[in-house]
């Protein structure tokens, strides 16, 4: 440990102006900012100002307080190190700054405006954000990743090429075409940092950027950050959180945070001086002791209750926490460590500092002061290209997108809508003593004149002729000698129904037809003969679909039989038309897309880069439209060309209707994606929607049979 009282006195001269108290009304000025001009301290404009911020998270019934009257000030051109133990609320503060979260009481101002306000540029190109999680497209390579953000930020190709070359060298990244998934954890974090640095924003928000980075590179990163704030009229402001408290010695100003408030905020030197400690960790420990070390969760809870979070009082004096008294720094000693974590002025030699300076001078100025430009189409295009690229990378998804619909249609056409096969049907033909009809003629002679059954063998055994029109591949006849036995077989499940015809079926049917032709009035037909000429059908309707199919087949056979018979009698007969409607529902693929991006942290990054929810949704909608178009083409091609499903109307209307179904599916998918946090939730909701849709759509049962309200 070494130090001199002269050093400390110099420091005190500067820190007199700093007043680094959390709730101090005096203006805080960092060491680097305390430049004298005409003998007067020139105050840098404020980049970030957080006043009396309160916030809590709600998880079910549980409210977790996170910010408890936080005050924080960051001036333009500063590197601000936000330090504190895990869970104290650092990330929450950063998210409030970039506009991802809002505070419940108090205010947050970035460049003088609330984040998210129109024209503030935050979220947008004025800010570069590196979240704690990786938040990168792992299936992309570095170039593809940075190109996505280049499009969002509207950088020219030349600017991008220069910056890419610099970042590759500076961050020691491997080949720009290597997939991120094949990189080490440290390389992935550096790629994530490259995204935040790409457009050289005015405000850089870095949430633990040096985790998993080796000391040499960590030092180079700090060096670069320092250059960014030093070289351009102090326009670039950096807020950085880190677990390595000592590396924050290189910041212009540090805020020490605990339990949702700042215990102290000042330059590292001033803090070391005031507390007479050799390092910032010891300073933090001292501050914790002052704040009430070993403060248990219970004590904290009590403190929270004393000062309710949802207090809308504007009286700052009531809400602010007790300031840490740093005023007693008189006579303190500046304690210098052995060069580790020295101030920016004593830079650690950066491996690529020259490259850094070159690059920054060539490109930074182009972005400084740039407000959120009106680049809607550019950002939508960026999101669309990114989504197409992601699809291209995921072969499985591509298969899902285009091959699955074709497979589904094929399965649908093969498995659904076909007639059931080989259904046993009990036949009781008493006219033929219950025996099969082998040997009986089934054809009427051409141009036969009706002369009566006695003299025309072709009109005998009409029961057999009727049975000959039955499609045996669907209704397989099983002959029984009595109705009772046949009925028993149906009851036992050996047959799906009974067709029975009486002893004199042909004669009675002939008489019935003859008499109706002669009298032109069916009501005059003898009732006994009428009954004896009927074909009796009794069905097992436990499976309604099979029962309906068989009834239809029996009716079709009867229609054909009568058509032939009546035409042989030179009578007219009108045949009814059949129609078959196939209805399908397209499933939108989009239900998972937003969830995946959100869970990977990519969505936040995209928001903070300035893409609005509307632009993001539009991009996904347009991509879905293209996907739908191809799906519909594949589906209709299979249905119409391969499976020959008849289309009686306009093909364009069929195409349009199918597209509209796809659009409906996509829209539902986007809504599900927006409201669900996990893929499991989305799957459950999608399934939950599917069944009511299926049941109410009329596919299974006609809508006409439903209660009016359901229709
Ligand atoms: N979405 C959330 N819902 C409920 N609680 C949350 C949520 N996000 C954070 N928290 C809680 O809020 C507190 C502060 O979290 P935050 O991430 O801001 O801490 P941190 O200081 O950044 O921690 P670390 O250094 O470990 O990243 C923690 O107790 C955390 O569990």
TrEMBL record:
Its main location: membrane. CDD domains: ABC_DR_subfamily_A (cd03230). It is a multi-pass membrane protein. Keywords: ATP-binding, Membrane, Nucleotide-binding, Transmembrane, Transmembrane helix. GO terms for cellular component: ATP-binding cassette (ABC) transporter complex. The chain crosses the membrane at residues 617-645, 651-673, 685-703. Coiled coil: none annotated. It is found in: Membrane. Residues 1-12 have a biased composition (Basic and acidic residues). Residues 1-24 are annotated as: Disordered. Residues 48-284 form the ABC transporter domain. One of its GO terms (molecular function) is ATP hydrolysis activity. PROSITE patterns: ABC_TRANSPORTER_1 (PS00211), ABC_TRANSPORTER_2 (PS50893). It holds the Pfam family ABC_tran. It comes from the Eukaryota. This is ABC transporter domain-containing protein. It comes from Tigriopus californicus (Marine copepod).
């Amino acid at each position: 440990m070494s130090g001199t009282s002269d050093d400390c006195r110099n420091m005190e001269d500067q820190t007199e102006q700093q007043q680094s108290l959390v709730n101090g009304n005096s203006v805080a000025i960092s060491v680097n900012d305390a430049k004298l001009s005409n003998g007067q301290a020139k105050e840098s404009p404020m980049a970030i100002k957080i006043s009396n911020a309160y916030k809590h998270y709600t998880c079910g019934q549980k409210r977790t307080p996170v910010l408890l009257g936080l005050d924080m000030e960051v001036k333009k051109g500063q590197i601000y190190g936000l330090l504190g133990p895990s869970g104290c609320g650092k990330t929450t503060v950063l998210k409030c700054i970039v506009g991802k979260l809002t505070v419940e009481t108090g205010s947050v101002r970035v460049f003088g405006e609330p984040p998210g306000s129109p024209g503030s540029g935050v979220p947008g190109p004025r800010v570069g954000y590196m979240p704690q999680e990786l938040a990168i497209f792992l299936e992309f390579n570095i170039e593809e990743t940075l190109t996505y953000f280049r499009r969002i930020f509207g950088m020219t190709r030349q600017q991008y090429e220069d910056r890419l070359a610099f970042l590759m060298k500076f961050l020691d990244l491997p080949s720009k075409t290597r997939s991120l998934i094949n990189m080490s954890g440290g390389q992935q974090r550096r790629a994530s940092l490259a995204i935040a640095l790409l457009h050289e924003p005015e405000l850089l928000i870095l949430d633990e950027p040096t985790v998993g980075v080796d000391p040499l590179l960590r030092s180079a990163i700090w060096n670069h950050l320092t250059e960014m704030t030093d070289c351009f009229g102090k326009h670039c402001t950096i807020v950085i959180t880190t677990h390595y408290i000592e590396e924050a010695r290189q910041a212009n100003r540090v805020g020490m945070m605990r339990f949702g408030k700042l215990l102290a905020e000042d330059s590292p030197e001033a803090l070391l001086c005031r507390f007479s400690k050799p390092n910032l960790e010891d300073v933090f420990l001292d501050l914790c002791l002052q704040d009430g070390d070993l403060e248990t969760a219970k004590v904290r809870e009590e403190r929270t209750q004393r000062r309710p979070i949802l207090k809308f009082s504007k009286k700052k004096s009531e809400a602010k926490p007790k300031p840490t008294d740093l005023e007693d720094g008189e006579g303190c000693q500046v304690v210098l460590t052995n060069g580790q974590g020295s101030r920016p002025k004593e830079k650690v030699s950066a491996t690529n500092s020259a490259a850094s300076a070159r690059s920054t001078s060539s490109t930074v100025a182009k972005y400084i002061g740039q407000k959120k430009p009106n680049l809607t189409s550019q950002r939508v295009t960026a999101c669309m290209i990114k989504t197409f690229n992601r699809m291209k990378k995921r072969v499985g998804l591509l298969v899902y997108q285009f091959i699955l619909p074709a497979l589904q249609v094929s399965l649908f056409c093969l498995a659904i809508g076909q007639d059931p096969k080989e259904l046993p049907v009990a036949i009781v033909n008493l006219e033929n003593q219950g025996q099969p009809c082998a040997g009986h003629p089934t054809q009427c002679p051409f141009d036969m004149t009706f002369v009566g059954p006695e003299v025309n063998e072709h009109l005998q055994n009409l029961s057999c002729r009727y049975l000959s029109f039955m499609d045996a591949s669907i209704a397989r006849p099983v002959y029984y000698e009595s109705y009772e036995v046949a009925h028993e077989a149906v009851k036992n499940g050996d047959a799906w129904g009974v067709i029975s015809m009486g002893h004199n079926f042909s004669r009675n049917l002939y008489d019935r037809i003859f008499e109706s032709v002669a009298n032109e009035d069916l009501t005059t037909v003898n009732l006994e003969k009428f009954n004896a000429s009927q074909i009796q059908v009794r069905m097992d309707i436990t499976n309604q679909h099979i029962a309906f199919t068989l009834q239809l087949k029996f009716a079709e056979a009867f229609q054909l039989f009568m058509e032939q018979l009546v035409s042989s009698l030179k009578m007219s007969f009108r045949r009814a038309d059949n129609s078959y409607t196939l209805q399908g529902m397209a499933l939108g693929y989009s239900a998972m897309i937003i969830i995946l991006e959100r869970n990977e942290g990519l969505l936040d990054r995209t928001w903070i880069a300035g893409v609005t929810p509307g632009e993001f949704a539009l991009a996904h909608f347009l991509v879905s439209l293209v996907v739908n178009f191809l799906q519909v083409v594949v589906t209709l091609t299979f249905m119409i060309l391969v499976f020959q499903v008849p289309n009686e109307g306009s093909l364009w209307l069929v195409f349009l209707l199918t597209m509209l179904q796809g659009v409906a599916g996509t829209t539902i998918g986007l809504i599900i994606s927006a409201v669900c946090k996990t893929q499991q939730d989305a799957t459950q909701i999608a399934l939950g929607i599917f069944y009511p849709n299926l049941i109410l759509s009329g596919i299974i049962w006609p809508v006409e049979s439903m209660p009016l309200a359901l229709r």
